[in-house]
Amino acid sequence: MRPLLTHRPLRRLLLVVATGLTVLSGVLALGTGVASAHAGLVATSPADGTSVTPSPDAVSATFSERVSIGVGGLTVRNTRGLRVDTGSSTLDPAGTTVRVALQPALPDGTYVATYRVLSADGHPVSASFLFGVGSGPIDQTAVTSGAANRVWEIAGAVARFLMYVSALLAAGIAFFVAFLHDQDEDRWRLIGWARIATITAVFGAAGIILVQAALLSGRGVASVTDGSVLADVLDSRLGWSLAVLVMGLIAVHLSTDVRNLTASQALALYGGLATAGSFAIWGHSTELTPIWLSTVADVVHATAAAVWFGGIIGLVVVLRRPTDQPVASTARIVQRFSGAAAITVAFLAAAGLVLSWNATGGSVDSLISTTYGRLLLVKVLITGAILAVAGYNRSRLVPALVDDDDPPEAGWRRLRRSVSIEAIALVLVLALTSVLVNVTPARTAVATRDRVVNQTQSVPTGTVNLVVVPARVGPNTLHIQYADAAGRPIDVANTLTIEFSLASADLAAISRQTSKAGPGHFIYTGPELSIAGTWTVTLVARTSDFSEQRSTFAVPIRN
Ligand code: HEM
């Protein structure tokens, strides 16, 4: 029996993965916040970096989209690291504000509030903010979880990259062996690659679980041994996605074991589909409408990526065949792959464009003005360059080799070099993709920027700021903050009433009392903004027994 893998392919695999990891780290290091996730923090109570007197009853954080809490939520600690909240966090009816009650009468000092929530698309969102109790300065050196989160976010992108490269390689090479190869002896070298890739893909998947547990619990990777944390991580779309991935990888692995070609082809085909299709179960496609279109496009895109990427690596291996293999047979494999790749790339590009359209809303502004859009543009540019090289191979190098009964060694060498460049560039594309899937999709980023109402007006005491989240029909949270001319929170009133009215619907004003959250800071959550249109929201601050301060805002509410 032949050895499954010589050391040279293993070295090459490591080289290819190392190249991708280097690019990945570079992209992550260049773009600060690139690995940020998808529901953005809009407001906190107390506001970040402000001091309040007396000690507040609760702390809350409001996000741009609905979130879930799971094992996460809000925790509040003093500068000695001791918890000062009462334990369990709650989510408001809109699903956008997380709140935790505090122990009564906290002593003066600095406090660190840390939130850990899960975005609707499965990405954990976590960070910390500082607030003070009393009139003393805030200790800016108090430890927050920012740096630790960033490390985990980068680790998550690296695990995703390892999973993408390995899973696509395993599925693609198995397909190449089953459908495009001549079943000659050197298939064992390819099979060695496919088998190792199935194993590294499982490591990548395990890495994703560990990172997700660390980000959600804030207790490091060891938290995965806690049943409730593991259940929270796996009892989600991520759990289903990884289950389908592992089943696909098992089928792919089996396809390299069975002797019967038809059985091997069936296992490679369906195993590959499950492996690549598993990506669509977790991530942006599950949230970008129309969801059915995103999901179908994602499955087609990832499957085509597997056939192309795995095929290219397969071709590199075949082009380095031992010299005793018949040249005509190698030429036939090259020709078969060239034909299959042309169709595959057409599907990959078409599905990629559909995904891009859904993720950007087809707007040039979102392509240019968001991190997601710019990363996508770079991805398309690199893919374009790869396609130019592939087109040259297909139109010039391959016909010259196939049509010649005894092609010169220089021709094979040129093709080998050219295909190796394609392989390395595809690894770069996958490294970029691992970052892309961790960044807020352009459409969501622009919509959040445009959608969350955030207006400030001058008042006799300074300014008043109104934030309405999510500014859509249904339950909304309103944050109101009064500040002096220098921007410091100012206690203008103990009670604040909000009047909601919508002239176009002929609605009488609805009056609601807010809760005081800190000096000059009031919060209200309720279902009043129930019709699309421009609402008039009037804030009535009772500044004394005999006077009030009224501020009127025009608040657009969308469906
Ligand atoms: C025309 C060029 C391409 C375009 C426009 C494109 C576009 C996209 C878009 C918009 C996504 C969705 C990212 C998200 O979840 O937000 C995506 C995902 C992906 N792309 Fe591409 N792509 C292109 C080329 C490639 C190539 C050449 C490969 C690799 C061979 C590739 C592999 C992937 C993979 C593996 C995913 C992740 C699927 C998932 O996790 O759901 N793409 N692509």
Strand sequence of the main sheet, in spatial order?
A: 9-10-11-15-14
Output the radius of gyration: 28 Å
The hetero compounds bound to this protein are: protoporphyrin IX containing FE
Helix content: 40-55%
Categorize the overall geometry: elongated
Proportion of residues in extended strands: 15-25%
Return the domain count: 3
Q: What is the terminal-to-terminal distance?
A: 66 Å
Structural class: alpha+beta
Could you name the ranges where pLDDT drops below 50 across 5 or more consecutive residues?
1-6, 31-37
Written description of the protein model:
With 559 residues, the chain is an alpha+beta fold. The protein folds into three domains: 7-30 and 149-445, no CATH class; 41-144, Sandwich (Immunoglobulin-like); 452-557, Sandwich (Immunoglobulin-like), CATH 2.60.40.10. The chain is 49% helix and 21% strand. It has twelve helices and 17 strands. It has helices at residues 7-30, 146-180, 187-217, 227-234, 237-255, 261-277, 291-319, 327-360, 364-369, 371-403, 409-436, 442-451, and strands at residues 41-45, 51-52, 58-63, 67-78, 90-91, 97-101, 109-119, 124-133, 453-459, 462-469, 476-483, 495-501, 510-513, 515-518, 521-526, 533-542, 548-557. The chain has a five-stranded antiparallel sheet, with no helix packed on it. β10 and β11 form a beta hairpin. α2 (146-180) runs antiparallel to α3 and α2 (146-180) runs parallel beside α5 (237-255). The longest helix has 35 residues, at 146-180. The radius of gyration is 28 Å and the shape is elongated. Bound molecules: protoporphyrin IX containing FE. Residues 164, 279-280, 283-285, 298, 301-302, 305, 308-309, 348-349, 352-353, 355-356, 359, 376, 379-380, 383, 426, 429-430, 433, 436-437, 441 line the site of protoporphyrin IX containing FE.
